[in-house]
Amino acid sequence: MNYDRVDAHILEVVQKNNRLTSEVIGEMVGLSSTACQRRLRRLRSEGIIEADVSIVSAKAVGRPIQMLVLITLERERADIIDKFKRLIKSSSEVVSGFYVTGDADFLLYLTAQSMEDYEEFTRGFFYGNPDIKGVKTMVIMDRVKLGFAIPIQMPEED
């Protein structure tokens, strides 16, 4: 995946606000609206821009309990890992899931309506799964920073 300095500038802009029109983005980076649209379309088709999303407040939609959960699998075998990845992807309660190194195998970000709701979820999702060796839950007290902006590496000038 290649991108140039103009693409890098576009990426910085859309990470802060992806609702800007291509006309506004183009003005900010020195392009016409049409040229900006072409670059955005290419950045999306090449997978450099993976998604355009809105960040929804969990609290505002009735899911104020937020947790980070560390999962340790019983055995680290490819079939067990792949099966657990599919389980993560199929769960609406799991907002984000990461296969990680270190003391745990997976890190999950979950939301729940209440602790009772989370307990019910854990009984089915974690404790009913024989491939899971351990679960450590950390309840989020305060979200200090939220974002998905990746620092953009400026390409070398030719």
Q: What's the alpha carbon Rg, rounded to whole Å?
A: 20 Å
CA distance, first residue to last residue: 17 Å
The overall average pLDDT, rounded, is 94
- Which regions have little confidence, pLDDT < 50, spanning 5+ residues? none
CATH superfamily of the largest domain: Lrp/AsnC effector binding domain/regulation of amino acid metabolism (RAM) domain
Trace the largest sheet across and list its strands: 2-3-1-4
Count helical runs. Answer: 5
Q: How would you classify the helix and strand content by structural class?
A: alpha+beta
CATH class of the largest domain: Alpha Beta
Number of folding domains?
A: 2
Main sheet, how many strands, which sense, barrel?
4 strands, antiparallel
What proportion of the residues is helical, as a percent range?
25-40%
Remind me, CATH topology of the largest domain? Alpha-Beta Plaits
CATH architecture of the largest domain: 2-Layer Sandwich
How much strand? 15-25%
The number of strands is 4
What general outline do the C-alpha atoms trace?
elongated
Taken in chain order, the helices and strands follow as: HHHEHEEHE
InterPro entries: AsnC-type_HTH_dom, Dimeric_a/b-barrel, Tscrpt_reg_AsnC-like, Tscrpt_reg_AsnC/Lrp_C, WH-like_DNA-bd_sf, WH_DNA-bd_sf
Domain HTH asnC-type: 3-64
Pfam family, one: AsnC_trans_reg
Protein name: ArsR family transcriptional regulator
